[in-house]
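DM between two lab members

TW: hey, do you still have the DUF1918 domain-containing protein entry open?
JB: yeah, one sec
JB: this one, 64 aa:
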Amino acid sequence: MSFEKDDTVVLHDKHSEFDGEVGTVTQVMETMFGDATYTVSFDDGQETGVPEDQLEAADDEDEE
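TW: and the structure you got?
JB:
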């Protein structure tokens, strides 16, 4: 599943301080291999270069 700018997502990256947090996609970048990576903004910062397989669409109840 690909994501677009302003989508609300949950990050799954055990090495990130934002693991399990809900954020908003602020930028979509395409790699030279044709894959997409994302910049996701959270309340306390942002994570850049996030691959699609580390993101999950947030449920409406996750946003609260």
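TW: got it. The longest strand covers residues 22-30. The mean pLDDT is 92.
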